[in-house]
TrEMBL record:
This is LacI family DNA-binding transcriptional regulator. The keyword Repressor applies. One of its GO terms (molecular function) is DNA binding. Keywords: DNA-binding, Repressor, Transcription, Transcription regulation. The chain holds residues 57 to 331 of 333 of the full protein. The keyword Transcription applies.
């Protein structure tokens, strides 16, 4: 039952409040929510998921949007079902088939990146990724490698680093020394850090190395050079997630709701033909 007959309270769980991808997601939900729902946001680390859920339930949420990898999605599903709390998962999901979900076409996203770099004639491409990857990132990489594997003469150099601006910055010398003429960073945060690191090392982007990110976060168009990236309709994702959880609250018997959103290349200054 809803609190005092007012708007339902929806809890939103993300891995980080600082990553602009999730800031956009939360902003879109808040804009969309204004007289539909009240929202409470929480960010949780990998080892805090359970506490995070408990906190949300203590706050009396009526439903949840989980934009966070769940290592034990089945357990969480059982638990939330028992509590009668409907939830929608989006992005990062490792099991989307057990609940309502919104995701983007990650495989195509990876392909779009690879095609762009192949068309520019790059033969040695660094792939920067975090050590531990979420399911959506693995799909992104599968799309990327599917295209590269079709080429006989294109090589991927995998480099692991943190999924953050600092991660990209810290690895710049390694990227430069690898002989790669292009780098695909699994998100914009890493890409922005890499731009700074390459600049510090006297490497020119895109003349010496092209850089392409992922997410089309708001800083991407303001960096120098501006960052080529892939946009994944994060705004729409937030709206849909909220609509889905509200629909489920109204009608628990609805068939499973699923939306898969398109992605699109945003070509800017940081990618150019291979030197
Ligand atoms: O930048 C955050 C990344 O993690 C994004 O690419 C998004 O898809 C999320 O999974």
């Amino acid at each position: 039952s809803l609190r005092g007959g007012g708007n339902p309270l929806i809890g939103v769980m993300v891995p980080s409040l600082r990553n602009p991808f999730f800031s956009d997601l939360m902003q879109s939900m808040q804009n969309h929510a204004h007289n539909l729902a009240d929202l409470v946001f929480i960010s949780v680390d990998d080892d805090e998921i359970e506490q995070g859920l408990l906190k949300m339930l203590e706050r009396g949420v009526n439903g949840l949007v989980i934009a966070r990898m769940l290592p034990n999605a089945l357990e969480v599903d059982r638990y939330l079902q028992k509590q009668g709390i409907p939830y929608v998962v989006l992005d990062q999901i490792n099991d989307s088939n057990i609940s309502d979900h919104v995701k983007t076409d990650e495989f195509t996203g990876g392909q779009v990146v690879a095609r762009h770099l192949v068309e520019l004639g790059h033969k040695k491409i660094a792939l920067l990724h975090p050590d531990v990857m979420t399911t959506n990132m693995l799909e992104r990489i599968s799309g990327f490698t599917a295209i590269i594997d079709e080429q006989d003469d294109v090589e991927i150099i995998e480099i692991a680093t943190k999924l953050s601006k600092h991660g990209g910055l810290a690895i710049a010398n390694k990227v430069a020394a690898s002989g790669a003429t292009a780098a695909f960073t699994l998100n914009d945060e890493m890409g922005i850090g890499l731009l700074r690191g390459l600049k510090n090392g006297g490497v020119r982007v895109p003349e010496d190395i092209s850089v392409i990110g992922y997410d089309n976060t708001d800083y991407a168009e303001f960096t120098v050079p501006s960052l080529t990236t892939v946009t994944q309709a994060v705004w729409r994702m937030g709206q849909l997630a909220l609509d889905m959880v509200l629909a489920r609250l109204k009608d628990p018997a609805l068939p499973m709701q699923e939306e898969i959103l398109d992605v699109r290349l945003i070509q800017r200054e940081s990618t150019a033909p291979a030197p």
